[in-house]
Design goal:
With 140 residues, the protein is α+β, with helices and mostly antiparallel strands. 45% of the residues lie in helices and 15% in strands. The protein has a two-stranded antiparallel sheet. Helix 4 crosses helix 5. It is globular, with a radius of gyration of 20 Å. It starts with a helix and ends with a helix.
């Protein structure tokens, strides 16, 4: 193997059989979208969700919700686990449990988890995605 290939793993991958796709694959999602941060205030751990179409649940209309994950405490995590256990649900890995993430997001917004679970799937996924990113960013 030449010194150029030894010192350049990408070059080595390009030369490997069947590996050009792996060597040239680039991330398409900007890194800025991965951070849970309110762009206006710069608050880390805050996600502001604006509904494209107002969402109505039990007589209340939601146009925008702010999720302040940074204000959550350890007792919130324990309470979410206890709530899930009471419903015979278990999150072995909260960072991949949609149920855990939705309950955490609901707490961060000060709404009931039933409100979040009644949202359109596209909104629900964006919100639980923000919860997942916060968990991963906080070292979980």
């Amino acid at each position: 193997m030449s010194d150029q290939i030894k010192n350049n793993p990408t070059k080595a991958a390009e030369n490997a059989t069947g590996a050009p796709e792996a060597a040239t694959h680039e991330m398409t999602q900007p890194a800025a979208e991965n951070a849970v941060q309110d762009a206006e205030s710069g608050d880390v751990g805050v996600y502001k969700h604006t509904f494209k179409k107002p969402f109505e649940y039990e007589g209340k209309t939601y146009e925008e919700l702010t999720f302040d994950f940074g204000r959550l405490k350890g007792r919130d995590m324990v309470a979410i686990e206890n709530e899930m256990q009471g419903m015979s649900e278990y999150a072995l890995a909260p960072e991949i449990s949609t149920s855990f993430q939705s309950k955490m997001a609901a707490r961060a917004a000060g709404i009931g988890s039933d409100v979040l679970e009644a949202m359109p799937l596209k909104d629900f996924n964006k919100i639980t995605g923000a919860a997942r990113r916060f968990l991963l960013d906080s070292g979980y």
